[in-house]
Every structure is written in structure tokens, then in C-alpha cells.
Amino acid sequence: MLKAVLAVFFAAASSPDTVRFEYRLTVDARDLQGFGVQLQFRKAPRSITLAAAAHPEYDDKYWRYLAANPNAVDALGRALRVVRVDSVRWRIENPGGGDVAIRYRLQLPPAEAFRAAWKPFLSETGGLVGGPHSFLYVVGEERSPATVTLSLPSGWQVATGLRAGESPNTYRAPDLHTLMESPMLVGSLSKWTFDVQSIPHRVFYWRLPNAVAFDTTAFVNGVERLVGQSFALFGSAPYRDYTFMFQDGAWGGLEHPNSVTLGAASANLARDPHSTLMETAHEFVHTWNLMRFKPIEYRGLEYTTQPPVAGLWFSEGLTLFYADLLVRRAGLPADDSTRVAHLETLITRYLSGPGNSRFSAEQVSRVAYNAGPGALGNYTASSHLQGELIGTMLDLVIRNSTNGQRSMDDVMRVMNTRFATRGFTGNDIEQVVSEVCGCSVKEIFDRHVRAGNPIDFDRYLGMIGMRTSVASIPAANRDGSPAIDLRIWGYETANEPGVRLAISDPTSIWAKAGLNSRDKLLSIKGKSPKNWPELRAVLTTLKLGDTVDFVVERPDGRFETRVVVSGFNRPVVRIDALDTITEQQRQLREDWLRGLPAAQAVAPRLSSTAR
Question: How many CA atoms lie within 13 A of 555 on its CB side?
Fold first, then answer.
């Protein structure tokens, strides 16, 4: 029987120009705890290194869930020796050379209460498979084309950014990196389509069994209008078609070159069909700003951990900037009622975290991936937030220097063409901004991108006749009662039991009592929490005036301290108009408030090549 199965497998594509890698992913409706994968490697060498890909941002390490080591056979059905090199690589010895069939099974981890939209899952009505969570690859063959065939329960549909092959449920990837960047939503799916500039877009939605009905016309219309505004910004699309994959019962999203996975709870959509629009906008703008033009440190298909990325502040921060702006340009509801309200929210968050002005945007970017909590000591900072605010200030500088004729829109268009085939650095961004505005922005980059200094918001807001006022008030709960200082949380690591502490502000009661980020918690109030949920359960019972005893472990030994629970102050930011403004300030402010593109039509076009 085994030889018969292998004969069919190896004979599936025997023409000389057949791709070398043919994957088959099988979902059995009788066993939805995992799925099987077969990989046929044609004309394989005598030694093969098989690896699990590491996503640069979300390396979820699904190699941990392989039911056993992969097994391999040659074209005659003879078992080949498979040796585990390390946690993510296996060596397959193929003495005779020639075709090899590799098989393995992924046993899915226990279902999470609220699943991240990019993580694989299976249910009776569908699931998410594919990408680095599902497929191992052959090191050295990253540029080789591949096909993948899905064997699915009867009636299940497939949504993916991959191009359809000649056989049902078979899809083609021009290289293995594209295969890893093309997850597949499968099951009972709703589907809608629309074209923008003659480019087809597909919207798929997977519902939970108890899904709530919502206005699908308004939902899809919002996505279509967002796509239209993105095209207006960048001028063209870097893809031939695009697939949106929305999932009920999930949160978050993850961008890919021509597709995206997004959480979209039907209950939320029933209340507001545009409730997921800001997240959708964020991930969709990444199609350009991160997928097409990206920081120089970004790599292709790799099994090792992504090195630190200094330019993440731009890739994430400017994407957030445009997620908010494009939603407004589309005439759709944004999270904040006005651009002023949105900026007040951002500056409040910036001032609430002292790490944002202490550490540079590049420094914070470098610890955003794979560094873990506590990388900045008893501070936390957000490269996303820093980037959005730096982008906002740069936009004001450009508008002011060009009398409203140019804006960050022009910067994004130049980045889109100039860095489509090579990565960019912070100096590259500075050069492009300087070209667009015809001015020097070296001080902004020196003070806030390459070094950590507080942003002087009034200096830049003054260009549009506005200023901030900042008050410090006692933090309060939603009911108006005083809030206790909970600027502390816990996290777990894969290599040890228990929980470690993370502290976000050195002025918090926890830091003042001598506790530090990365301390291993031994006990709190005589209890020994095993994980963050257990620690959170203790923290949420605290009241003003409570005394809390801590015992932690550090490299230099045990440390004991007592914390008296108290409240804390938080900033409140308000942005108002200056008493006296010039006509230019008034016009710039009016255009900025409306979120209008700058008058690029009357400005000379910039070259897309470096000068």
C-alpha cells in the first residue's frame, strides 16, 4: 500500500519542467487537532537541510508542535535517515540522490480564548493553514517555485493570495518565500469582489457557528473605499490581485504582499460595520510600507531570528499615520472624531510613557522584535507611537516649507519607487524628506530618530497656528473613582516556569520600592503565581492603602520589598489655536484639519532615483 501511494505521489508531475517542490496539506474532518503535510522534492541532492521558517515579527515557533521528526523516503519507498540538527533544522541523507518524499504532522496547540488572526486553527466549519506555521522548507532553495495542493473536507472553499494551479485546490508560488507569505483561509466562507483600477480584490469572511448578522454591504464598501484612497496615495498597486481574509472570533492582523489575515468579530460588525476598518487600513497600507519598501535589515525566507530593525518606527509609525488619514479621506469613521482629537490622544500616550522621550525611535525599534519585556529596563516605549508622531511633525514641516504644495504623501510616493528593490536606512528617509521639503530635517532626525529627546510639539504645531496645553491630574477609573498605580505586569518565558515582572515607569510605586523589570517573581502577598493571569488576578484585587510584600529572584540573589498601593497622576493634553496667526498658518491648518492631500499637481515631480 505504501509503495502504491508513493507511486501516485511521485508520478503526479513527471514532465521535465515540473517545479521541484510540491506540497500537499491534508485536513481530515475526523481529526481537527492538526493536519498532515507531504513535500515532494524532485531531483534532490544527497544531503538535504529542512528548516522551519522564522517570521520576522511573529515567530510563533510552530516547529514545537510537530508530532514527531519528519520522515522521508526515496522514489523506491526506502526510508531515509533524518537527523535533527537543532530546534528548527533537520538533515536528510539521500545517498542515491533523486526524488524524495517528506512527511510530517502538525499537532495544533490548545485553542486560545481569543485567537490571533495569523495563527492556524481548525474547526468543523473551517480554519487557517499555510505559511511558516505549516510548511517546512529546504535551505538553499528559497528561490525555487512550488505548488501546494489542499486536501480538504467536502464543500470547503479556499481563500489565498496564491495563484490557482491547473488542478482543483492546487496553487502556485513563484518561490518559497511567496509560499510562506500566503496563508490560506479554508472552510465555509462568504465572498465578495470588487475592482479598483481594474485590479481584482476579493473579500472573504469566515463566521463562527453563533455569528451575528451584520451589514455586509457597508462592510465591504468601507474596504473598497479604503483601497481606492490607498491607490490615490501611492499611485499604483504592487500586486495583480488582492485577498482580504477576515475571521470571526479572532483579533489583530498580519500583512502579506497580496493578502491579509484579519480578526473581525461579527458581534462588533453588527454594532458597527466599520469597526475593523482602522486595523484593516493599518495592515493594508503595510502592503506598500513594509512589504514593498522595507528597512534594510529585513530579510527574505530565513530560519534564524530576525536581527534588530532600526527603521521600524517608519514602517509602523507612518503606516499608522496613513491608516488614520486614509480612513478620513474615504469619508469613513475614524477612532477619534477629528485629527486634533487624534493628535491629543497620541501626545497624551507619548507623555504617559517617559521612555518615549528618553530613547530614540531607532533604539526602541531595535528592541520591538524578539527582545522581550524589560529590554529598556523600567521603561517602556512604542516605536509605533514615536513613528506616528515624528511622521506628523515631518508632515507639518514639509507643508510649511512648501507653502502647502507638498506633504508626507510625496515622501511615501518617492519611498515607494526608490526603495522597491533595496532596503532603506534612517539616512535614506532623511534624504527623501529633505528633497521633498527643500529644507533640512537633520535636527529632527538627530534629536528624535537617532537620539532620545522630548519632542517640542508646540514648535511644529505653531506652523499651523496651534499649540498644546498639558495638565497633570489624578488617574481615575471609568466610574470616576481614584485608580491605583498598576504600571506593572508579568510575562512568561518558554525556558522556565513561573512569571517575571515588567515595569513601565521608573516613577511607579513598584520601581520606587526597588522592583525591576525581568525580576523573577517568587511570591506576592504570600502567593506564588505561576503565570501572568494568576499574577493579574492578585493585582486586580488591590485597593488604595494596601500593603503588598514581594519576594523576587535576581542573578545576585533574592530581594524582598514592601509596596504601599497608591494612585498616580496622568497627563491630559489639549490642542488649541494660537491667538494670532498668519494667513499661511490659517490655510495650512485648514488643509491639515481636513486631511487633504497637498497640492502636488502644481509641484515639480521628484526623481525616483537617488541624487
Answer: 2
- The CA distance from 69 to 88, in Å, is 11
Beta bridge partner(s), residue 123: 126
- Contact between 184 and 126 under an 8 Å Cβ cutoff? The reply is no
Cα 461 to chain centroid, rounded: 30
Once rounded to an integer, what is the mean pLDDT over residues 81-90? 97
User: For residue 263, how far is the Cα from the chain centroid?
Assistant: 13
Nearest to 264 by CA among 225, 230, 220: 220
Q: How far apart are CA 378 and CA 373, in angstroms?
A: 10
| Neighbouring residues of 76: CB distance < 8 A, sequence distance ≥ 6 | none
User: Using one digit for the tens of pLDDT, what is the confidence trace for 476-534?
Assistant: 999 999 999 999 999 998 788 999 999 999 999 999 999 999 999 999 999 999 999 99
pTM: 0.93
CB distance 273 to 214 below 8 Å: yes
Coil/strand/helix, residue 471: strand
Grid cell of 277 as nine digits: 476598518
Strands 170-173 and 163-164: antiparallel
Reduce the secondary structure of 161-222 to three states and give it as a string.
CCEECCCCCEEEECCHHHHHCCCEEEECEEEEEEEECCEEEEEEEECCCCCCCCCHHHHHHH
Q: Phi and psi dihedrals of 70, rounded to 5?
A: -60, 150
Q: How many CA atoms lie within 13 A of 38 on its CB side?
A: 17
Q: Which three cell numbers stand for residue 346?
A: 497620541
Give 375-429 pLDDT, tens digit per residue.
999 999 999 999 999 999 999 999 999 999 999 999 999 999 999 999 999 999 9
CA neighbor of 332 nearest in space, from 225, 228, 244, 409: 225
Asked whether the CA dihedral 557, 558, 560, 566 is positive or negative, the reply is positive
Q: Which is nearest to 390 in space by CA: 354, 361, 432?
A: 361
192 beta partners: 203
Does the structure show a pLDDT above 90 at 3?
Answer: no
> 182 pLDDT exceeds 80?
yes
What secondary structure letter does DSSP report for 451?
S
Q: Rounded to an integer, what distance in angstroms lies between the CA atom of residue 108 and that of residue 123?
A: 11
Residue in 413, 395, 391 with CA at minimum distance from that of residue 404: 395
CA 314 – CA 320 distance, rounded (Å): 9
Coil, strand or helix at 132: helix
DSSP 390: H
> The sheet that has 79-86: what strands, in order across it?
136-138, 47-52, 89-93, 79-86, 71-74, 98-107, 31-44, 21-28, 146-151, 170-173, 163-164
What are the phi and psi torsion angles at 585 (to 5°)? -60, -40
Q: What φ, ψ does residue 100 adopt, rounded to 5°? A: -135, 140
Give the dihedral of Cα atoms 249, 250, 255, 257; nearest 10 deg: -40
